[in-house]
Amino acid sequence: MFHSTRGKELVTSYEAILNGIAKDGGLYVIDKMPKADYHDYLNLSYPELASKILNLFFTEFEYDELLNEISNAYKSFDIDSVVDYKKCDNAYFLELFHGPTLAFKDLALVVLPRLMKLSKEKMGVKRNITILTATSGDTGGAALNGFKNIPGISIAVLYPNGGISPVQEAQMNSFKGTNASVFAIEGNFDDCQSFVKEYFQNHKELSLSSANSINIARLAPQIVYYFYSYIYLLNKGEIKDGEEISFSVPTGNFGNILAGYFAKSMGLPVKSLICASNKNDVLTEFFNKGVYNKNRPFFRTNSPSMDILISSNLERFIYYASGEDEAKTAKLMSELKNNGKYDFKNPFDYFYAYSKNEDETLEVIKYVYDNYKYLIDPHTSCSYGAYLDYKNNTKNNEKVVVVSTASPFKFPQSVLAAFNIKADESFESINVLSKEFKLEIPKVLNYPKFERDIVSLKDIDNKLTEVIKCYESK
Predict the structure, then answer these.
(1) CA 329, CA 325: separation in Å to the nearest integer?
(2) All domains in the chain, ordered by first residue
(3) DSSP sequence for 64-106
(4) Residues 6+ apart with CB under 8 A from 74
(5) How far apart are CA 429 and CA 434, in angstroms?
(6) Cβ–Cβ contacts within 10 Å for residue 323, how many?
């Protein structure tokens, strides 16, 4: 069972998945955090492990039906193992970009539509449901890809015009169709995300849900790769049974690293969680100074998926870090809405936070390639840079998994800039990247030309409502 971070009314797994966000505006959390012993999972495939972990959260489902849906979902990945690893000294890059849109969001967003489809069937819901999602780049493409051809579900995605990479934009607009709409909003990601939250509250007459990590079924699949990483290192003889490891995670909306917190809370031997940010360092200040303050300049950077000042999933963390206090969580979220900030001292000493500006991001990309002949994208660069800071500052020497969230081919111009190689057009830069570093271009990078639908914040409510009502009438 699940309830809101701001109240105790219980709902089933099916309701939490289909609702996306609680009626009081809070986020769903499980009534009691499950425990998991990684020894029980040592010989499982990735889909089998994912089915076991998700069944601990969504207990109303049968394991076999989860396994069937998840196994079929991951057939769209280009490697059988679903994820991969590259060792560089004491760090292990966890490659989460082998899915259909070359980003870590695929790990959850090929699964979520299937869970929603099952939930609709279990509850006997006949009406069309529209998935409404704001994206800083990767979620949109992955969600559109995941929900295509899912009967009874449509999707609308909002992204900041000019605030994502050309590859991300092309991916999203290539998935438009009879059940999918994409809108470029005149504003930044926080504007898009705030609008979506308010739209849920203002249009309860519509059948809406979310594919952002505010949906618990988007978040839960991300827990899996933390367990899988530990088991992988253990089975490879890289660590001893019970030895603690750490994770360095690039994050903007706080969902990716929150999944690591969940894994640790469930019993995985995690020593430290390293929160990596870019120049939009609101999370770095939160962990280092005990204040969350979105009242600051917003920067568009070379790691655009982390260009975020309102980290929605931090609400779930606040709930747990405050001792599962719904009233306190609601109070702090009200302060954030009304004043743009709140004070909160993190009680967990295993969180570390570092940020990297754009020049540092490029320097780390070059450093990793020069030393290991391994090419990483700008978000992964922030993650590895944070790992280096953690290692230097703490003098800790445990094994660290550096979460690699996107293929370098999603951000070719930024990667090339690290080597002072210029390429004017994004898709030409893909060819340059392939030639310069002798890398095969992923087959999925083949998109038709498109026209973006640019909408102002003052006009998007009416336009979106018209589109959703059209979907519901079909």
Answers:
(1) 6
(2) 112-214+449-473 (3.40.50.1100)
(3) HHHHHHHHHHGGGSSSTTSSEEEEETTEEEEE---STTSBTHH
(4) 46, 47, 50, 82, 110
(5) 8
(6) 8
**Interatomic CA distance for residues 119 and 232, integer angstroms:** 32
pLDDT tens digit at each of 474 positions of the chain: 999 999 999 999 999 999 999 999 999 999 999 999 999 999 999 999 999 999 999 999 999 999 999 999 999 999 999 999 999 988 999 999 999 999 999 999 999 999 999 999 999 999 999 999 999 877 888 889 888 878 889 999 999 998 888 888 988 888 767 889 999 999 998 999 899 989 998 998 999 988 878 899 999 999 999 999 999 999 999 999 999 999 999 999 999 999 999 999 999 999 999 999 999 999 999 999 999 999 999 999 999 999 999 999 999 999 999 999 999 999 999 999 999 999 999 999 999 999 999 999 999 999 999 999 999 999 999 999 999 999 999 999 999 999 999 999 999 999 999 999 988 767 789 999 999 999 999 988 877 778 889 999 999 999 999 999 988 887
d(CA 181, CA 156): 5
What are the residue numbers of the active site?
105
Cα–Cα distance list, 260 to 104, 225, 235, 464 (Å): 14, 9, 20, 34
Distance CA 259, CA 257 (A): 5
Name residue 407's amino acid: S
Copy the structure tokens of residue 216. 């618990």
**Pairing, β 28-30 against β 129-134:** unpaired
Return the exposure string of 250-267: e unless at least 16 CB atoms fall within 10 Å of the residue's CB, then b: bbbbbbbbbbbbbbbebe
pTM (whole model) above 0.70: yes
